[in-house]
Amino acid sequence: MRLYQQAIKVQTIGKSLCQITPQVQAIVTESGIQAGLCTLFIRHTSASLLIQENDAKPDVEAFFAKLVPETGQYILPGEGLDDMPAHIRSALTHTSEQIPIAQSLLQLGRLQDIYIWEHRQSGYSREVVINILGY
What we know:
The protein is α+β, with helices and mostly antiparallel strands. The chain is 24% helix and 41% strand. It has a five-stranded antiparallel beta sheet with strand order 1-8-3-5-6, covered by helices on one side. The longest helix is centred in the first third of the chain and has 11 residues, at 21-31. The N and C termini lie close together (5 Å). 27% of the residues are buried.
């Protein structure tokens, strides 16, 4: 069994979903691991990871905008009006994901892609650590 680890940095454009499937697949291919597990971890508290269908993005974003409004009664002022809503959205979603690997390919469904979900209004440089464990 082998472990391969690499981190990627992605510049987000503000509150949106940023697809990273091609970058992750390239790292899986580079690892040389044929079968195993790919684990992703985002090193931030105001962004998260999401596996989702591209066409579902507007509805997912609209749902979370209602669930965690920007203008809520938040105690901690943080780094701006979008700070606490971003942390709450991150707490309700995932900071890590696991995807099986077979024949050096991520075993995602036909309509699934991997996204960084930026919860802040401004763009940020986000780091995702990718661990690939297998044979």
